[in-house]
Amino acid sequence: MGNAHGHRKHHNGANNPGSSAFKYGQFDQAVHAPSSTNPNMESSLSFPYAHVDASLRALAGQAEGFGRCAIGGLHGSVYHVTTLADDGPGSLREGCRKKEPLWIVFEVSGIITLSSYLNVSSYKTIDGRGQRIKLSGKGLRLKECEHVIICNLEFEGGRGPDVDGIQIKPNSKHIWIDRCSLSDYEDGLIDITRESTDITISRCHFSRHDKTMLIGADPSHIADRCIRVTIHHCFFDGTRQRHPRVRFGKVHLYNNYTRNWGIYAVCASVESQIYSECNIYEAGQKKVAFKYLTEKAADQEVGRTGCIRSQGDLFVTGTQAGLMHEHGEHSLFHPSEHYPRWTVRPPTDELKRFLQHCTGWQSVTRPADHALSV
C-alpha cells in the first residue's frame, strides 16, 4: 500500500499539487473506505491501513513511520473487557496492569470514567473495534513501556492538573495510536516527552481543545533529542494550538488536515526538526501556520529555535506558511533516512473530505482472530 520513496529527492512545488513532488509512488491504487457518517460515501483515494481490519491482529507491526515496529499484544491471549467499571475483574484497568502480552477487546460499549491515570504496561493492544468506548475523567499513561497499540477509542472530558488524554513518558517506545477521537482535556490531548520515541499517530480526530499535542518536555530535558514521531492522516479540527509543538525531536507530518487554529498550526522550538509533507492548512482568523519559538537547551550557551521544511503542503483561505529559510534546511532530516515507505497523496479537496469523515472513532466490526504469522 505504501508509496516507495527510498532516497529519492523531492523537487520544488510546495504549493502546487500538480508539481513533480507528487509523481513518486503508486497513486493509481484505489482503496474504497466507507464514511462512518455516510456509509454510502466512498473515495478512490489511496489510504493506508486498508487491510488491517481483515483479522483481529492484522494491526500488529503495520504502522507507517517511526512507530512501524509496534506489535502490541500480538503474541498474547485475548483479554475481554466485560465491565465499564474503573477497576476490578473484567475491567480495562485490570487488563492493562497485567504483565504478559494481551490483545484487549471490549464486550461492552459506554463510558469508562477513570478516577486516576490508567497505566498501560508493555505489549498491549487496546482495541476498540466492534464497540464504542469513551474514556473520561483521566487518561492513559504509557510509562516506561514498549510495544503498545491503541485503536478506535474516544477520549473526552479529562479533568485535573496535568491531565492528558494520552500521556507518553518517560522512556516509552514503539507506540502506535490509530483511529482515536480526542477532545476537551484539562491539559494536552497527547503528550510525548522524557525520551519517549518511535511513535506513530494516525487517523485521529482532534477537536474542542487548546493545547493539542506537545512533543518534547522543556529546554532542560536535552535527552529528548532522541524523540522521533510520525503524525499522518489526522484531522485537527479547530483546536487552538500545538498541532504539534515540538522541542528537540524529529517529526514527520503528512496528509493531515489542520483548520481554524486559534494561535498557530505547528510550532518548532529548540532544535526541533519538522518535515511537513502534503498537509492541508486552512486558516481561520489567525493566518500564519508555522510558528518558531527560541529557547536555550540546558547544555548550550545560546538559544535556538527549530526547523520546518514544507514539501507539497497546501495553504488555503489566505493561510500564510510563515516559513523561515535562514535556518538551513539542508541539515533537516528526511524521512527516507529512517523508513522506506509511507502512503502520501496530493493535498486535494478529496483528501480533505476523506479526512473529515474517516478519522477518529469509527463504527467498524471487530474482526475475527485468525492466526497471523509475523
Descriptive overview:
4% of the residues lie in helices and 30% in strands. The protein is mainly β. The chain has a single domain (52-358), classed as Single-stranded right-handed beta-helix, Pectin lyase-like (Pectate Lyase C-like). The strands form 4 sheets. It has a 10-stranded parallel sheet. Strands 4-7-10-13-16-19-22-25-28 form a 9-stranded parallel sheet, covered by helices on one side. The chain is globular. It is found in: Secreted, Cell wall. Its cofactor is Ca(2+). This is Pectate lyase.
Radius of gyration: 19 Å
Fold-level CATH name = Pectate Lyase C-like
The figure for the number of domains is 1
Strand arrangement across the biggest beta sheet: 2-3-6-9-12-15-18-21-24-27
How far apart lie the N and C ends?
18 Å
GO biological process, one term: pectin catabolic process
Pathway: Glycan metabolism; pectin degradation; 2-dehydro-3-deoxy-D-gluconate from pectin: step 2/5
Catalytic activity: Eliminative cleavage of (1->4)-alpha-D-galacturonan to give oligosaccharides with 4-deoxy-alpha-D-galact-4-enuronosyl groups at their non-reducing ends
Pfam families: Pectate_lyase_4 (PF00544)
